[in-house]
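QA checklist item 7 of 12: single-chain prediction sanity check.
[x] sequence parsed
[x] length recorded as 497
[x] structure emitted
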Amino acid sequence: MNNLLFSFHNVSIRQYNSLVFEGLDFEFERGQNWALVGKSGSGKSTFLDFIMGKASMARGEASFPYFDWYLNEHHRDDLYFNKFKLIAHVSARHEFRNLSNTSEFYYQQRFNSCDSEDAETAGNYLSAIKVVQPGGFWTYQKVTERLRLLPLLNKQLIKLSNGETKRLLIASALIRNPVLLLLDSPLNGLDVESRQDFNELIREISDSGISILMATTPTEIPDAITNVAILDQGSIHAYEADQFDPGKLLFGSLESIDQNELLSLLSNSKWPIYQTIIGMENVSINYGKNRILDQVNWQIKHGERWMLTGHNGAGKSTLLSLINGDNPQAFANKIILFDQLKGSGESIWEIKKKIGYVSAELFQYFPTGSTCHQVIESGFDDTLGLFRVSNKSKAEASLSWIKLLRIEDYAAKVFRNVPISVQRIALLARAMVKCPVLLILDEPCLGLDFAQQQHFKNLIEEICSISDLSLIYVSHYQEEMPSCITHSINLEHGKVV
């Protein structure tokens, strides 16, 4: 039997009207598991999209023998059955919709109990997945137990944390029992324990007969991976996994930052000095019978820089939502923000004006056609998208940040279509255009390669070194933490430990 799953010969791949690969040659055989590595923007996601039929072939020859030998082994009467149904793709972006199927979720929906009821539960979502190969190894019971989803089955999709969502998406892919599993940055958003378990999970998936192709970082390649493909400037270089040295792939060099220009931009707004940036006293949050935060006490003084840690589902996002004005339950608790008791007369928009917020989740909620420049200018209004005519002075200020952060080439491009690294830098610019009192960074480096992570960290350190900005930084990776961090707080099952 032919062992070739698929092959590309002299293939050129186009996505969003841009040629991403040209003259590409690649072969994937049964028994192999591949890791795709490369700097952010090298085309890893586009490569996976092409295999799924979501990116077009400009020229060349693509062959998928796995579909022919599958049809020879399994009689299918379905006229609409095609090669893509034998592939499961876990992308970096979820496409959950509400129960009425009329729209995607909005960002604050997870924190509003009434609106969040319009989201189906994790259990219902998983039950609705159409199984390609009935009787396969990965059953509903198997995936829910192995991916630790049993406690989450009655939880609305919108209330899942990043890591919980990732586990659900992997489970929904496995339950189909595909021939080929595509994973786009599957470790993003997973806590330390989950990342350690992922290595064994990949081994189990491979042993069950599923071939794996995953985009990942050079330092997070599971043991079951047999081959590594480096994507670089539209070409691909293949290695046996045991011959691959991740230490040689510290992509790019660190860029310097114009300190004078940064200082000038940070001087555009003058805020009063607040003694208490955040004050929480015995704060508890409940959704039905589930207690998400339990008697949390937390004080942040002017100029302090905090690290916030905790496992997936520990309550970190809920805690941040109380600060950022996204959670209505904040009014039922004793919370001081910027020297003022929550609910004593300030508006949500007055609070948000003082806060710059960057989250790995935010990129999913901007209008489809928003450009990077528009996304950044929307930071002045604290809206997820620019819902007004562009203001000249604000547009110029946004452009100044764009130039400082060296993403001019992407200013007019659609935000959702640019590399993840550019999205993260654009979100930082969006947070900083109003020169906030408090900067909240919730897993801001997800999807960035090593050099880009270092560059982002340097940006934060520079900003903190020449300003008295207060900071909350959330990450599962200790090495991402900037050196300006002065304090730390850890959540475990909703409690400070």
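[x] summary fact logged: The chain has a mean pLDDT of 87.
[ ] second reviewer sign-off
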